[in-house]
């Protein structure tokens, strides 16, 4: 038993290894020969000789022949050489059956023919015969035969195609006996002799149809029982269609050559198409929504804050954006200290530098709980962060970052709540008139237009003989995409599509004047304020503006010593400078430290004789096939 089990396991492993080494089977189509005979009643007898070159073992093949409304098919047979295949086999794709049999299945708008055989790495030629009724169109003057001798449903390219159309009489070539091959980008030719049309095509790619169209005198048909009858004379219209197809091909070539011959002009036009519409849309949105209306205000400086607006809301008013960050958070914290919600007293702390080889004494503030004051909704998350750090006691401001980082997830959520609260407060005040909706609609419209144009252009694009219309569709689609991207990027500059209302514009002008005053204050000769409350408001708004160091510099130059000794938010470094000293407690470093500690924790990991003419695609027959 052990020996048998070992042998069985070895056989399984050997079979698996052999299967892994076996290459995937495939087939190619070296040649196909199609003969279509117009019968005296107008029906069309078709015989297809299709050569398959197999690499590997194959047992089945199929053809699917499309049928349009009014067209029928009968007389289907399959043979190989002189050996006819027996009907009655399965017509399911991938099915098996006895070699030398075939089956037929009616599908919606098509008929499928499946044949069964046995072939291993060899070339085999199969012949499929059938008769089509209703494909040939009989007009009063001519009969129109428009047949796809090779369909676009084949997923494998064809090396060489030969097609022959045989007429019921021996009419010589002339005005009423003409033939064309379609489409123009297939390499091939068409030749006429008495009662016969020959077509050749080489290297037909996968998914490409080849069409043979011919007209001949109506008198050559004995009856029209197998044709579709359409009264009226058709020859002038058919000749005009074919001439227009050929002329269209020439026009496309001339237009493409003209664009390539004038590269500079073409590039300028492309740039205009890519950005011109977006610039016009932006200009319209700016004039309607973005251009600020002048305010009746002409002062250069405001020596005091223009209103009691919370420091976290002033930057959004000035930059016309509700987004806030660490500066506004820090300013709100210092404003809560200024208002007494938290008590602060100057202290000194030691900090090690140079890997612990040196210790420095730095100025610091010690924060503790104060007397609660009413808080705005967006101030509550700031207070929650500070309360969590203090935990009922007191703590040095220089250690806040480490304590905030201990509960990074929870404090990050509070920071997000603070930012969302500021945005809500900005919306409640209705400061702005916004064109954001109009801009979004324009971006969506250009993006949708781009998708539609690119889909249409790429779907019909022919690399061998491109049509001018398809190139235009692709170019316009890319231009629409460029316009959409340009409009989307312009959303970053909110001043293009958002402006302040008249009251907000006046208030913003005053706050801008106050910011200029704080920025220029250290070099001004004006008398400094004498009230501590105003000095502290200077620092709070200076933090929000991002110019706290300028305010501290002004305080160092102008603030009376008696005031800074009683202040809760100014402090003195060992060197005597207000709030400067070692950089550990500089306002900018403090704010950036808060921003880093309040950021969300990281959670992911990195990582008529002659050639072919244009047009075509209107012929019957065609379809595709394959093998397994």
Explain what the structure shows:
The chain is an alpha+beta fold and 628 residues long. The protein has helices spanning 2-21, 235-261, 263-290, 314-319, 326-338, 380-390, 400-406, 408-429, 436-459, 468-490, 502-520, 532-545, 548-558, 561-564, 587-598, and strands spanning 26-38, 44-55, 57-66, 72-80, 83-84, 101-107, 110-120, 123-133, 137-138, 142-150, 158-166, 178-182, 188-193, 196-204, 210-217, 228-229, 342-353, 358-369, 394-396, 432-434, 498-500, 610-611, 620-621, 624-627. The strands form 5 sheets. It has a 9-stranded mixed β-sheet with strand order 5-4-8-2-1-11-14-13-22, with no helix packed on it. Strands 9, 10, 12, 15, 16 and 23 form a 6-stranded mixed β-sheet that branches. β17 (342-353) and β18 form a beta hairpin. The chain is elongated. The chain starts with a helix and ends with a strand.
């Amino acid at each position: 038993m052990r020996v048998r089990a070992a042998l069985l396991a070895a056989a399984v492993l050997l079979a698996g290894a052999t299967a892994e080494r076996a290459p995937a089977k495939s087939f190619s189509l070296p040649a196909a020969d199609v003969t279509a005979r117009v019968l005296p009643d107008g029906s069309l007898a078709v015989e297809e000789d299709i050569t398959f070159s197999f690499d590997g073992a194959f047992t089945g093949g199929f053809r699917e022949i499309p049928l349009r409304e009014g067209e029928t098919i009968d007389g289907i047979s399959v043979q190989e050489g002189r050996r006819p295949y027996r009907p009655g086999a399965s017509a399911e794709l991938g099915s098996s059956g006895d070699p030398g049999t075939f089956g037929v299945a009616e599908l919606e708008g098509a008929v499928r023919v499946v044949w069964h055989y046995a072939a291993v790495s060899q070339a085999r030629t199969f012949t499929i015969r059938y008769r089509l009724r209703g494909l040939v169109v009989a007009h009063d003057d001519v009969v129109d035969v428009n047949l796809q001798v090779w369909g676009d449903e084949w997923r494998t390219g064809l090396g060489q195609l030969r097609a022959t159309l045989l007429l019921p009489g021996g009419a010589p070539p002339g005005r009423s006996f003409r033939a064309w091959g379609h489409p123009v980008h297939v390499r091939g030719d068409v030749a006429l002799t008495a009662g016969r049309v020959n077509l050749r095509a080489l290297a037909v790619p996968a998914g490409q149809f080849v069409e043979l169209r011919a007209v001949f005198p109506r008198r050559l048909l004995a009856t029209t029982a197998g044709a579709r009858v359409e009264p009226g004379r058709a020859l002038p219209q058919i000749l005009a269609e074919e001439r227009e197809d050929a002329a269209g091909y020439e026009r496309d070539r001339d237009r493409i050559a003209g664009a390539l011959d004038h590269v500079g002009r073409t590039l300028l036009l492309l740039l205009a198409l890519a950005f011109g519409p977006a610039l016009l849309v932006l200009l319209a949105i700016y004039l309607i929504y973005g251009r600020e209306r002048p305010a009746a205000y002409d002062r250069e400086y405001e020596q005091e804050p223009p209103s009691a607006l919370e420091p976290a809301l002033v930057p959004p008013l000035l930059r016309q954006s509700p987004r806030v960050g660490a500066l506004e958070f820090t300013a709100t914290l210092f404003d809560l200290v200024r208002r007494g919600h938290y008590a602060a007293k100057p202290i000194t702390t030691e900090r090690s530098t140079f890997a612990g080889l040196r210790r420095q004494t730095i100025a610091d503030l010690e924060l503790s709980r104060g007397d609660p004051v009413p808080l705005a909704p967006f101030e509550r998350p700031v207070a929650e962060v500070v309360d969590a750090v203090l935990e009922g006691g007191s703590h040095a401001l220089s250690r806040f970052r480490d304590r905030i980082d201990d509960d990074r997830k929870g404090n990050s959520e509070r920071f997000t709540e603070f930012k969302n609260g500021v945005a809500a407060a900005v919306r409640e005040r209705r400061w702005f008139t916004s064109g954001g909706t109009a801009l979004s609609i324009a971006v969506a419209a250009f993006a949708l237009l781009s998708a539609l144009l690119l889909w249409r252009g790429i779907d019909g694009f022919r690399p061998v003989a491109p049509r001018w219309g398809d190139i235009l569709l692709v170019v316009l689609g890319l231009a629409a995409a460029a316009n959409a991207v340009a409009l989307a990027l312009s959303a970053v500059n909110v001043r293009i599509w958002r402006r302040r209302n008249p009251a907000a514009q006046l208030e913003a002008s005053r706050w801008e004047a106050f910011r200029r005053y704080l920025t220029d204050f250290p070099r001004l000769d004006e008398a400094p304020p004498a009230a501590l409350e105003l000095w502290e408001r200077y620092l709070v708004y200076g933090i929000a503006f991002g110019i706290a160091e300028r305010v501290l510099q002004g305080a160092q130059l102008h603030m009376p010593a008696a005031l800074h000794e009683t202040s809760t938010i100014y402090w003195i470094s060992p060197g005597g400078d207000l709030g400067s000293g070692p950089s550990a407690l500089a306002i900018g470093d403090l704010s950036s430290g808060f921003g880093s500690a309040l950021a969300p924790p990281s959670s992911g990991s990195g990582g008529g004789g002659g050639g072919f003419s244009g047009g075509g695609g209107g012929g019957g027959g065609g379809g595709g096939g394959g093998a397994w």
